[in-house]
UniProtKB/TrEMBL annotation:
Organism: Neotamlana laminarinivorans
Name of protein: UDP-N-acetylmuramoyl-tripeptide--D-alanyl-D-alanine ligase
Keywords: ATP-binding, Cell cycle, Cell division, Cell shape, Cell wall biogenesis/degradation, Cytoplasm, Ligase, Nucleotide-binding, Peptidoglycan synthesis
Enzyme Commission code(s) on record: 6.3.2.10
Primary enzyme class: ligase
A GO MF label: UDP-N-acetylmuramoyl-tripeptide-D-alanyl-D-alanine ligase activity
Family designation: Belongs to the MurCDEF family. MurF subfamily.
Residues that, per the record, bind ATP: 97-103
InterPro entries in alphabetical order: Mur-like_cat_sf, Mur_ligase_C, Mur_ligase_C_dom_sf, Mur_ligase_cen, MurCDEF_CellWall_CoF430Synth, MurE/MurF_N, UDP-N-AcMur_synth
Length: 421
């Protein structure tokens, strides 16, 4: 079926859906396939559960005129998303980066929704499936779409940009993340900068942090709107992070609920984008000050006499370094519970040793390492090969009242530590 005709059918549906467990009445179900599943087998079930149409790519599963046969379901989902994006003509802001992109996306959305009807990526649905689903969740009421793009190899950001066709873009930073897939730090820079290449080629606007020399270098021939220094378009300044980030916007003091100096750039980017979209300073101030982090990202959790910095959603060498340097600055007794960092490939051994060396060199009262990579490192501190070993062998209640950093990659799921208190 032609995309234009399929789009007409989609406009009469409630939403795009790829999971029969979340089907709602009048959804359009896309029968995606993976290594261990075949969504075509669930097409009939989706219709029984209330889906208006089921998109399939295997003829034997066409049982009714509500099952629509296409050559490739995934490609159809992506093409439909691009068609829908152009049909709506919604302003699209895309962002990627090694660290902080989800927090930055949430902050941008928090600011812009004060004036505009916005749709933003939900959670971390930021890949070749999540981006199309986000685009298809937009309606004629959506004035600004905020699309987070994740990647772990070359050409992925370029591919996502061609689906979403953004009008604006921002890259949070270029750090040591997904080194295995990108092939080292230079590969990370090349891969993330694919967003810049798309925006420059299409004469779009890039938001730039002038404190980042890589951002400056990669956007020399671009339309830019900047923040970060006295030479920038917007006057934003860092004041302190003790532990919450304080900064100013045009000399107006803003007190955020985000901890760590590393979150300043995320806040500054959201404020700069708010200014570009003509929001008043007092509205931006209120939005930033009311934002509270969730989903295990720099959350402050109070348990008994402990202040816990729960940053267990993800980790890489760049974000881990920033988090433990921030912990050292906190007053009182400090504890770092650090879990393995994933997707580092050949660099895993060296990067875990580097983090271990740094953590042990800082003025942190207690450091505990969890995970096979840290366990293999040369470490004087307490270490455990697995979370279960930590849980079974360490009495966490023996820790005196402290500020406690809990950080590790998603696969470590270190939020499981909280119930142990």
């Amino acid at each position: 079926m032609e995309i234009a005709k399929l789009h007409q059918l989609f406009l009469n549906c409630n939403a795009a859906n790829t999971d029969t467990r979340k089907i709602k009445l009048n959804d359009m179900f896309f029968s995606l396939k993976g290594e261990n599943f075949n969504g075509n087998k669930y097409a009939a079930q989706a219709l029984d559960l209330g889906a208006k149409y089921a998109i399939i790519d295997e003829p034997e599963f066409k049982t009714t005129d509500k099952t629509i046969l296409v050559e490739n379901v995934l490609k159809t989902l992506q093409n439909l998303a691009t068609y829908h994006r152009n049909y709506l003509k919604t302003t699209i802001i895309a962002l990627t980066g090694s660290n902080g992109k989800t927090t930055t996306k949430e902050l941008i959305n928090t600011v812009l929704k004060q004036k505009y009807n916005t749709t933003a990526t939900i959670g971390n649905l930021n890949n070749h499936i999540g981006v199309p689903l986000t685009l298809l969740s937009m309606t004629k009421k959506t004035e600004v779409g905020i699309i987070e793009m994740g990647a772990n190899h070359q050409k992925e950001i370029d591919f996502l940009c061609n689906i979403a066709q953004p009008d604006f873009g921002y890259i949070t930073n270029f750090g040591k993340a997904h080194l295995e897939g990108f092939g080292g730090v230079e590969g990370v820079i090349k891969g993330k900068a694919e967003m810049y290449n798309y925006l420059i080629k299409n004469d779009k606007t890039i938001f730039v942090n002038l404190k980042d020399p890589i951002q400056i270098e990669k956007t020399r021939n671009a339309n830019t709107f900047s923040f970060g220094t006295n030479k920038a378009n917007i006057n934003i300044k860092f004041i302190k992070a003790s532990p919450f980030v304080f900064c100013t916007l045009d000399e107006i003091l803003i007190k955020s609920k985000l901890i760590g100096a590393y979150n300043y750039n995320n806040i500054a980017a959201a404020m700069a984008i708010g200014k570009y979209f003509k929001l008043e300073n007092d509205i931006i101030k209120k939005a930033i000050e009311n934002y509270t982090p969730t989903n295990n990202r720099s959350q402050i959790v109070k348990i008994d006499s402990h202040n816990i910095i729960l940053d267990a959603y993800n980790a890489n060498p760049t974000s881990m370094q920033a988090a433990i340097l921030n912990l050292e600055k906190q007053s009182g007794n400090t504890v770092a519970i650090l879990g393995d960092m994933f997707e580092l490939g050949d660099e895993a051994k060296a990067e875990h040793q580097n983090i271990a060396n740094l953590a042990e060199s800082l003025d942190i009262d207690l450091v505990i390492f969890i995970g096979e990579n840290f366990y293999r490192a040369e470490i004087k501190s307490i270490k455990f090969k697995s979370f279960d070993d930590f849980k079974n062998e360490y009495d966490i209640k023996s820790i005196k009242p402290s500020t406690i950093l809990i950080k590790g990659s998603r696969g470590m799921a270190l939020e499981r530590i909280l119930p142990l208190f």
